Amino acid sequence: MIPLSQVTSRAQVISEDPIIVRRDRFNTLTIHADPRTGLPSKLFNRVKLKIEAIELPAGYALEWGGEYEDSANARAALAKPLPMALAVRVLIVVCLFNSIRATIVIWIIMPLALIGVTSGLLITGTPFGFMALLGILSLAGEQIKNAIVVLSKIKTEVESGKHPYHAIMDGSTAKVRPVMMVALTTVLGMIPLLTDPFFGGMAVCVMFGLSFACVVTMLIMPAIYAIIYPVEEPRSESAPVAPNDPGTLDTVV
């Protein structure tokens, strides 16, 4: 042990910032907040406009981080391989039916499932986040599968010699039970995830979207098929014979 006077002439107590936090090489002040109840996304939607309305001094900027930033980065990363995945799905359907018109019939009903997704998010008050986006991508696969099942049955009925009108009616009604049972089991399996703060958005999108997609597949897709493949209701082969008018004379040649 040595006296402090042997190594220094005097001591001075001053205050300084022990840690300087930087973000992208800029000095940064981070404000952290967690909601007492509910999801962070709901809190973000409540305070976003009020905080952005605050006037900042010259040289200062505001950026949102946390869950909002993570979700945006995840969506951006997911958007890069998405076109390739969609192209592969279209190619599979084209190779399966060997028909561009059949592919159009299946893919033209895909956006209609968003009606059920939007209704489910509004009814449950669930925000559209990254997990909800994953739910929509999963829903797209389920809807394509159901459409392929129904369209394959219609094609089989047509190839067996049935009139296209009757093939549409019989093929659609024959696949009502399988499509509905698949949708019912999927919806029931998603019920435990409704209250989960992380998987709730995905469960809502799959449940409401798949339920509405079944209605679209069974009712709207056959109508679109009849439009793209011009199919009309067959007329009876024998025209009805008008009764003889008692005031006329039958002539036999």
End-to-end span in angstroms? 144 Å
Shape: elongated
Q: State the helical fraction.
A: 55-70%
CATH topology of the domain at 71-228: Multidrug efflux transporter AcrB transmembrane fold
* Class computed from helices, strands and strand pairing: mainly alpha
The oligomeric state of the chains shown is single chain
Strand content: under 5%
Order of strands, main sheet, comes to 1-2
- The radius of gyration over CA amounts to 32 Å
CATH H-level superfamily title of the domain at 71-228: Multidrug efflux transporter AcrB transmembrane domain
- Secondary structure tally, helices: 9
CATH architecture tag of the domain at 71-228: Up-down Bundle
Under CATH at level 1, the class of the domain at 71-228 stands as: Mainly Alpha
Low-confidence stretches: 238-253
Please give the largest β-sheet. Answer: 2 strands, antiparallel
Q: From N to C, what is the helix and strand string?
A: EEHHHHHHHHH
Report the mean per-residue pLDDT as an integer: 83
Explained architecture:
- The protein has 253 residues and is mostly helical.
- It has a domain at 71-228: Multidrug efflux transporter AcrB transmembrane domain (Multidrug efflux transporter AcrB transmembrane fold).
- It is 58% helix and 2% strand.
- The chain contains nine helices and two strands, in the order ββααααααααα.
- The chain has helices at residues 40-52, 66-79, 82-97, 100-107, 113-124, 130-159, 164-174, 176-190, 200-228, and strands at residues 22-23, 26-27.
- Strands 1-2 form a two-stranded antiparallel sheet.
- Strand 1 (22-23) and strand 2 (26-27) form a beta hairpin.
- The radius of gyration is 32 Å and the shape is elongated.
- Mean pLDDT is 83; it is low at 238-253.
